[in-house]
Inverse folding.
């Protein structure tokens, strides 16, 4: 059975940093990444990382590019989201995502984590 378990959310002041972690069980994934959903809004793409042999590639939403960094540990089947220079508009529930195609949209995701809350105060 495949599960994605996230950790690391919390409350932080604007300009601060947080790191989210997500561990997969059951299998490994080519593509792992993150989405977020703010109250009253649709779930939106944050970024993903792919792994093929010795090569990893990352892709980010414009809204987080330069502030957020996604990395992975293939041995641990884990993906991480390092968030710097956080803004109040980054406040959302963050979801880990995994699948076998590029995670450019929620409809491309095969598996979701349970979500972890990130709140950024001004």
């Amino acid at each position: 059975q495949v599960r994605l378990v996230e950790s690391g959310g919390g409350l932080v002041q604007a300009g601060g940093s947080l790191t989210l972690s997500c561990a997969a069980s059951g299998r490994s994934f080519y593509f792992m990444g993150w989405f977020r959903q703010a109250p009253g809004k649709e779930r939106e793409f944050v970024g993903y990382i792919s792994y093929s042999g010795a090569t990893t590639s990352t892709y980010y939403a414009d809204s987080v590019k330069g502030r957020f960094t996604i990395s992975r540990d293939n041995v641990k089947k884990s993906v991480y989201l390092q968030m710097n220079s956080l803004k109040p508009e980054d406040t959302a529930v963050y979801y880990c995502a995994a699948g076998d195609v590029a995670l450019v949209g929620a409809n491309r995701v095969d598996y979701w984590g349970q979500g972890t809350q990130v709140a950024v105060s001004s």
About this structure: The chain has a mean pLDDT of 95. The CA atoms of residues 28 and 74 lie 8 Å apart. The chain has no helices and eleven strands.
